[in-house]
Specification:
alpha+beta, eight-stranded antiparallel β-sheet, five-stranded antiparallel β-sheet, 14 helices, 21 strands
Length: 450
């Protein structure tokens, strides 16, 4: 078997040492105290861990890098850490696919693919997640024609509640494939994923400050004219920063090492960290800092391979809520959000992020069956976020919003069953694959019912 940690005492009891199995997510807002932790080094060890948990009457959850802000992976049973299940398992250039072990970090996958002259078509902006964690919660980028990482899946392997290894694709177990690409860990433990890939290409990124009124008035135009468009609004200001990524014939013109470090490390992480720490200590200073920071933005353009354009280091920790709205309602919702924030006593140091995605055919995808725009709100780690998120969520749900499965929200199964036309299809499959809820936890009970 892989590494096992067990035999814990109740955490926090007087005179007891810290629980070595305790787990905390990246943002620090979710903790768990599993009965034991297993680090399987093979698919067979995953199967054995699942069977043993069932025999012991313990529930099972697999956890990736902890970048979700919900308790989707929390458990008091067996916590699987698949960090030993890593690497590319096979490349099929004729089919345009790559198969990768579930514990592989996206940053490692992207670099390995680039070394092979290959790339995913689209990706989010954070590379720390494991491929199974990112796809299982619906991680996405922005795109007119492509966005979700899960939508690029062509096959996957799943250890089910009875310990079987199930292979699914459009041809094998297509009903499972339709749901398991974004499975929330509710259907089993994903051990390998096959992605569609394409020959490595170049993207030209154009970043440009723009006023809020202009970018919202021209939102449909920017969406239509660019393969990948997103923008950030700085609360307490009328200022935004826009980013347009489009394929390029080259030549490559990457950011210089000095300018790249200044922009992406010193300013976006080092200075931003200091500014947020100041804002947490002195909330009244936040609006002034936001106006100063947003006015200091300047335009830049560069051309590089995809992951060096799509992704960026995120070292300043935060808590996030994101809702997927019908794309045609996004601007209206964003204007309402701004109208709520402007006269309020809220103090928000993080920008609001707006992205898009095409409709897809995954049962619980936030873009399932409809053209989508995402609005994400953030608060610096350690600052009160409930009032802001509650007010934002009230706006987003009024527009039929679907919450990101890995980000803070308060929705339950009754709401989500109305928001997702194929919700019943997913829960029926769950009843068949995991009738005893071996892979259940409190979060899944809330969002999927029981």
């Amino acid at each position: 078997m892989g590494t096992v940690t067990a035999g814990r005492k109740q955490p926090g009891a007087p005179g007891t040492p810290p629980n070595p199995a305790a787990w905390r997510n990246w943002a620090g807002n979710v903790t768990a105290a599993p009965a034991r932790v297993v680090a399987p080094a093979s698919v067979g060890e995953v199967q054995e861990a699942v069977r043993r948990a069932a025999e012991d009457g313990l529930r099972v959850k697999a956890v990736g890098s902890g970048h979700s802000f919900t308790a989707a992976a929390a458990t008091d049973g067996v916590l699987l850490r698949p960090q030993a299940l890593t690497g590319i398992l096979g490349v099929d250039r004729a089919a345009g696919t790559v198969t990768v072990a579930a514990g592989t970090a996206l940053k490692d996958l992207n670099r390995a693919l680039a070394a092979e002259g290959l790339s995913l078509t689209n990706m989010g902006d954070i590379m720390e997640q494991t491929v199974s964690g990112a796809t299982g919660t619906g991680t996405h980028g922005t795109g007119r024609d492509s966005a979700s990482i899960a939508a690029q899946i062509r096959g996957l392997e799943l250890v089910t509640a009875d310990g079987r290894l199930l292979t699914c694709s459009e041809k094998e177990s297509p009903d499972v494939f339709a749901a398991a690409r974004i499975g929330l860990g509710a259907l089993g433990v994903v051990t390998a994923i096959t992605f569609a890939v394409e020959p490595l290409f170049l993207l030209t990124a154009r970043e440009e400050p723009m006023r809020f009124d202009r970018v919202t008035a021209e939102f449909d135009e920017h969406f239509a004219e660019n393969e990948h468009f997103e923008f950030y609004w700085f609360p307490h200001t009328g200022n935004c920063n826009t980013k347009r990524n489009n394929r390029s014939q080259g030549p490559a013109a990457p950011l210089g090492p000095v300018s790249g470090w200044v922009e992406d490390e010193l300013l976006s992480n080092g200075v931003f960290q200091a500014v947020n720490s100041l804002g947490r200590a002195v909330p009244a200073a936040i609006p002034g800092i936001a106006r100063l920071a947003s006015r200091a933005l300047s335009a830049r353009s560069y051309t590089d391979i995809p992951y060096k354009v799509f992704t960026s280091p995120r070292r300043v920790r935060f808590v996030e809520m994101e809702y997927a709205l019908p794309r045609e309602r996004a601007v209206e919702a964003l204007r309402e959000l701004k109208a709520m924030v402007d006269p309020s006593r809220l103090r928000i140091s993080f920008p609001v992020e707006v992205r898009t995605a095409p409709a897809d055919d995954i049962a619980l995808s936030t873009a399932s069956g409809r053209e989508t725009a995402y609005i994400a709100v953030h608060m610096y780690k350690g600052t009160p976020y409930q009032a802001y998120f509650t007010a934002a969520e009230r706006i987003f749900t009024a527009y039929g919003g679907r919450p990101h499965w890995g980000k803070v929200h308060t929705r339950d199964a009754a709401y989500l069953a109305e928001a997702y036309p194929r919700f019943g299809e997913f829960t029926a499959l769950r009843d068949r694959l995991d009738p005893d809820r071996l892979f259940g936890n409190d979060y899944l009970r809330r969002v999927l019912g029981d």
